[in-house]
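W.,

You were right to be curious about this one. When I first looked at the sequence I had no strong expectations either way, so I just let the prediction run and decided to look at it fresh. Below is the sequence, 51 residues in total, followed by the output.
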Amino acid sequence: MTEGLKNDVVMAPAQRRNEAFRLLSEKLRKRSEGRPQTPSEVLLRQSREER
């Protein structure tokens, strides 16, 4: 991420920062879809499912 874009997100109002975060998280989920998870991620998911 370029420094200018990074500063733009930090200086933006909370609603815009939330939207930027949501869009970035969607991109990350799409990129990591179908990839094997690390053992710690598997354990975390299992513990959440048990609750």
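Here's what jumped out at me. Residues 44 and 50 are 10 Å apart (CA to CA). And, maybe more interesting for your project: The mean pLDDT is 78.

Coffee later to discuss?

I.
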